[in-house]
Amino acid sequence: MPFDFPLTLSTNFVAASWAETPFHEMADAGKLSRATIVNTLSGGIEGEGTLEYLLAYPAVPGADVAFVGYERIVSAAAGREGSFTMKHEGCFSPLFGVSGALNIVAGSGTGVFAGLGGSGVIKAKAGEHGGEYCLTLDKAP
Fold first, then answer.
1. What is the residue range of 115's domain?
2. Global pTM value
3. 1 within domain boundaries
4. Does 87 map to a domain?
5. 88 in a structural domain
6. Which tens digit of pLDDT belongs to each residue from 18-45?
7. How far apart are CA 29 and CA 57, in angstroms?
8. Going by C-beta distance under 8 Å and a sequence separation of 6 or more, which residues neighbour residue 129?
9. Which DSSP string corresponds to the chain?
């Protein structure tokens, strides 16, 4: 089923798997780490997301962790068959959870998501293994 643009929707995600590996550490400088995540999606978009994060841990334990990454969303439900890629950029706060910006990568859409553009935010509470994507979808410029 085609979209009526602009479309605002909320999609819940749960991390079905998370594998993280440090790739550079220095005394008194924090560490750089790579995380491979598989998300189960429900709500506005049903499907699966395959996500790769690069994380920058601070030198001070317990401080906010910056991240950037790309996630390919694949959906085959409710007439929304296809895929697209989102760029993630934000931070994880041990006190407040995850917050950040999401942007649809131009030209990444397939199937019903072909020509998709848009942006949104990611929200997740500290201590939980999931959260919410709030997206506003439109046609790519």
1. 7-139
2. 0.94
3. no
4. yes
5. yes
6. 999 999 999 889 999 999 999 999 999 9
7. 8
8. 14, 15, 18
9. ----SSEEEEEEEEEEEEEEEEEEE-TTS-EEEEEEEEEEEEESS-EEEEEEEEEE--SSTTS-EEEEEEEEEEEEETTEEEEEEEEEEEEEETTTEEEEEEEEPTT--EETTTTEEEEEEEEE-TT-SEEEEEEEEEE--
Strands 110-111, 130-139: pairing is unpaired
Query: Band of the pLDDT at 61, cuts 50, 70, 90?
Result: confident
pLDDT of residue 37: 98
Residue range 115-136, pLDDT digits in tens: 999 999 999 999 999 999 999 9
Distance from chain centroid for Cα 80: 19
* Side chain identity at residue 122, one-letter code: I
> Cβ distance 67 to 89 under 8 Å?
yes
Supply the CATH number for residue 85's domain.
2.40.350.10
User: Is 2 part of any domain?
Assistant: no
Q: Which residue's entry shows tokens 């790309």?
A: 70
Distances (CA, A) of 82 to 21, 36, 59: 30, 21, 41
Tell me the C-alpha distance between 93 and 1, whole Å.
Answer: 38
